[in-house]
Amino acid sequence: MKFSLILATLGRDEELARCLASIAAQTYPRIELIVVDQNDDDRVARRLAALPWTCEVRHLRSLPGLSRARNIGLRAMTGDVVGFPDDDCWYAPDLLTKVAEALQKDPSRDGITGRSIDGGGHPSDPFFSRENRRLDRYNVWTSAISYTIFLHRKLCDAVGPFDESLGVGAQSPFGSGEETDYLIRALDRGAQLEYLSDLTVHHPNKNQIPGAQGLARVRRYAAGMGRVLAKQAYPPAYRTWMVARPLAGALVAALSLRKDLSRLRWAVARGRVEGLLARVGQGARG
Question: Which pTM does this prediction carry?
Fold first, then answer.
């Protein structure tokens, strides 16, 4: 089993160095690293040259757009299993060994997802379950984030490219949702995907309450979720619930005089509504 790791990167240096070092230190022997570089300088080349690689490394270039970069990587990959590390995440040395063992243990799995933890071992996302489960259209929202997803190539070939209207750097208001959209499309094809809570990838915890600029980012991310809810034809009751929940949270926070938290939850609700109501094309569905 050969891994193809598609690493899109833009604007990061020290975090990228940590990510690359963790991939170079993997105990698993068959790895292809595809770095899709969206910078206009040579920072990535310098970081790649500084490490003693034993795996195949390919340095490609791309215009900005996370989904665009991942699609370039998908077209270039030669491995049997694909992963999508963020440029600010990092792997434990035995991570890919564990992924390979999990996939080989149950050949019915078309892919697996794991849990995100920070450098101290605490959950990066408190909503992710501590219990293993098969993914479906509803629990996928709290069972998968891009850098913890590992899929068989045959599934990727069937699903096709990421929707380039979704994700960071997209030429749209939708700053997230591309990996969830991708997994939903896989599930609709009958894919068997499993969330393994003890399979963990390190990532900084970014759940702190942001300032004004951060609230705009939260709103764009929430718009991505709303767009996927609409694109994938979730029932009206579920869409309403996904807006009502942060709205109720904003009200409770306001009544508790927690103004920053109220603004955060309002940004989430507003972004989801904007994504739900957006009139755009369907994007790349494969």
Answer: 0.94
